[in-house]
Amino acid sequence: MTTTAIVSALHEELAAVLGLMPDEQPQRVGGREFWRGHLHGQPVVAVLSGIGKVAAATTATALIERFGVQRIVFTGVAGGLGDGVKVGDVVVARSFLQHDMDASPIFPRHEVPGYGRASFEADAALSARLAMASEQVLQTLPAQLGAEVVQAFGLQAPRCHQGLLLSGDRFVSTSAESTALRAELPQALAVEMEGAAFAQVCHDYGVPLAVVRTISDRADDAAHVDFPRFLREVASRYSGAIIETLLASR
Ligand code: ADE
Predict the structure, then answer these.
(1) Which residues line ligand 1 (CB under 6 A)?
(2) pTM of the model
(3) What number does the ligand 1 atom closest to the CA of 218 have?
(4) CATH of the domain at 31
(5) What is the pLDDT of residues 36-88, one digit of tens each?
(6) Within 13 Å of residue 134, how many CA atoms lie on the same side as its CB?
(7) Side-chain half-sphere CA neighbours of 133 within 13 A
(8) I need a surface site. Which of 16, 117, 156, 248 has the fewest CB within 10 A?
């Protein structure tokens, strides 16, 4: 049976997934706990990658080399960049780009040296299933979170978007920076700190990858406001429900 890795950067994002694994056993590798177990009867390894591209790349490599996972699903939060990508929406990546990669003038801006390309693809089939699971969750979950939470974060009529996800070793928390990113990379839907690193490692090893991100902020001057509360009360619930729906669907 296919072993699926479920990865998040932060504890709050993975807590709901671990809660769905009845038999999880921890194993420490490279300073991280990897939790082997089952979810809906399917073999799963759950792990916190930590934050940033290096932590993400180490985690992806360990998952593939040490745990032999055959596919990787990353779930977490991101800052919205694209028009209409608002807090409480979900983005499923179709492709990934490191917005802080710059070996110019030796290589074109954003190109990853040695690869002849700037962007890497998500696995189309796995991402389509993840998007379907996300759509399904968006239809029911906001109502379950309660009117006060929906009101507090403006979670009315959330949507699922699919497209380009940016990653970089920076929490984007000024309007000046998000405006510059939008101008430079107009197709970008959202920005986070790990996805493109996972994508590069998964490309190296030929392992399918899908990434889903709940939008926690608009990567602007208000990006830090209530981030912990959003993680706790919204993002962890989205992560758990989306992963459960994905694995239940086979
Ligand atoms: N993750 C969630 N919000 C983010 C932001 N604004 N920048 C980078 N990573 C994020």
Answers:
(1) 77-79, 171-173, 191-193, 216-217, 219, 223
(2) 0.96
(3) 6
(4) 3.40.50.1580
(5) 999 999 999 999 999 999 999 999 999 999 999 999 999 999 999 999 999 99
(6) 29
(7) 26
(8) 156
179 C-alpha to center of ligand 1: Å? 14
Largest CA distance in the chain: 53
Domain that holds residue 149: 4-248
The answer to whether residues 6 and 243 touch, using CB atoms and an 8 Å cutoff, is yes
Tokens found for residue 27: 């194993």
Number of domains, the chain: 1
* Atom 2, ligand 1: residue with shortest CA distance: 78
